[in-house]
Specification:
Length: 120
Amino acid sequence: MADFSCSIKAQLQRVGRPITVIDKNGGEEIIFAVVQQSWRRNKTNFEDKAEKPGRVYNEYCEIICPFDFDIKGCDRSTVFVIDGDRYELCRSEAVKAFGRIQFCRGIIKRIWEADENVFN
């Protein structure tokens, strides 16, 4: 049987973008992955809502990682830095075929930082 994990990893390095993964201990790792915003498929579930203190923005993305990156070992304290924006992992899974992990995918949510002088 064919194993496509190395081919998928090579294509992710070719078309993916570099992502810095920071774990809870401060360790950093750079991987190449494909990121796509989820709201493009179903925008109504991801629209921002007006709240009393302001607006709440929900920006979710799907991430596709190579087979050798342990996305199942990541938790909510793991931070994904993509183009200067910070994301946290909400859900993850390993995609298996032919008895081996071919690639990993997950759903990440953008972490919105508050301005320091928001009430001044």
